[in-house]
Amino acid sequence: MAIPDEVLAVLDAKFAVVLPHLDERQRRLYLASEAEALGHGGMAAVARLAEVSESTVARGREELAGGAEVLGRVRRPGGGRKSAAERDPGLVAALESLIEPREVGDPVSPLRWTTASLRDLSRELTDAGHPVSAPVVGGLLRAMGFSLQGMAKTRAGSQVPDRDAQFRHINSAAERFLAEGLPVVSVDTKQKEPIGDFARPGRTYRPKGQPITAPDHDFIDPDTPVAIPYGIYDLGRDSGWVNVGTDRNTAAFAVESLRRWWKVQGCLNYPGTDRLLVTADAGGANSPDSRLFKMGLADFADECGLSITVMHFPPGTSKWNKVEHRLFSRITHSLRGQPLTSYEVLLQTISATRTSTGLTVQAVLDENAYPTGRALTRAERKGVERRVERDEFHGEWNYTIAPQNPDQQHPEDPHDESGPPIPAEATFLLTHPALTGMPREQFEQLVLHLEPCQQVLTAAERRSTGRDGRGRNPGFGTLDHRHRVLTAVLRSRNTVTLTLAAELMGRKRNVLSYHAGRSKPMLAFAGPELARILVFRRTHPPRTLEALKRVIEEQDNEINSRSS
């Protein structure tokens, strides 16, 4: 009996809707079930409507009749096209030989990586007689235990002794201070930010096709204004304070940032307190080796009546300082993708930083100048050490500076590097024309003439150290301008040894040698007449006071004989 056209029309409509969503095996089984339902002639009718061969429908009937298991896959295991490694048995070995010289990592580890690109490997394999595409090479590498990955900054440097113990020491001290309601702050300097129309990393939501534009090249020169954010994070109140400097990152800048925070926020949030805990890293302006930082803290402690405890994280562990991931990370997020065209823009952006946990930030501008190259005298260094009360556990990292009684006086250090005043008799003796090659009046005029040159050279030397330079004073004592010129002249003429000159002046020889070397370029500004005077005079200059007086006496006698 023929199949009615109405039935065939319904089947045709069903096939058009259902078959495109079925895979090969599902389509075969479905068509076989419809053919069985139609009875005689159903196989041919279904094959014609579905546009498949009758053998396909017949195969489906056999699978249904035999109770085909549910595979959960289109093909049986081993079915379909063979892999490239199976078609070309030598492919994997050839790939291994190519990546062996460029392989990185532990050969025993299951995870390795190669420095060659997939396209390079594909091209070299094809040239070697193994035609293969780059995606196939990627699949083979993954099967061999390779992966595509970036560098991971996880390898720690050399471990500092008692590193973990210092972490626990800081944590216990912070918990103790917080439990007593005392302030605990974490401090550090954030990366410098150039001020101007410069591109910045990060993305922000903008209308489509309207990004913030910036020059295609950033040209940052030494005259470009910079912002130096010094952050102070209050652990107890989850608040941040950022002092944005415009000059240099010095110890004085770090202390001034703390002073400003205390006067604006700290004293209001912690009224009546007389103790403060500061956690800092082991480098930069607040380094534990910086006596200038300790001296500034001592002045701050005297001014505010605070006993300041400072605890430094061991070297190489600054990332665990709270200010880094509680304050600086959020500020970086706020600054993403927008140029810092002015200090005001930077301050407003930092002050707008907020978190869902309640973090608030206040930013202020610090336009003070913080010159570098400040060297402490021995008396100042001794005074700092007297003020520092070091902890029994790693006193170089943990110390307290208490306020000092203003009536307390310390005896003057007899070894102060500035030294006592240079005796007038020594100056009169060393400026004798027999030694300087010029009358004393001419020498005094030379000193006045070279004073502006000395100021220019000093300023140029400071600039040459860079914006963050710490100066070049290696710790030698001070010497006034007049005696610097005198020392430079005596050394150029070699009419007296620096050892004898230092003995007469009451200074160390290395002090005179240092200042003579630094002042020598200044003599070039005195003109050609002085150049003739500064010619090397003596191969064996006097080494004792008696020999020096004989030289002067001989010179005086010679002048007197010529005048007579």
Automatic annotation (TrEMBL):
Give the residue ranges for region: Disordered: 195-216, 395-424
Q: Where is the composition biased (Basic and acidic residues)?
A: 409-418
- The domain of life is Bacteria
Task: Report the protein name in the record.
Answer: ISAzo13 family transposase
* Organism, scientific name: Streptomyces sp. R39
- State the taxonomy lineage: Bacteria, Bacillati, Actinomycetota, Actinomycetes, Kitasatosporales
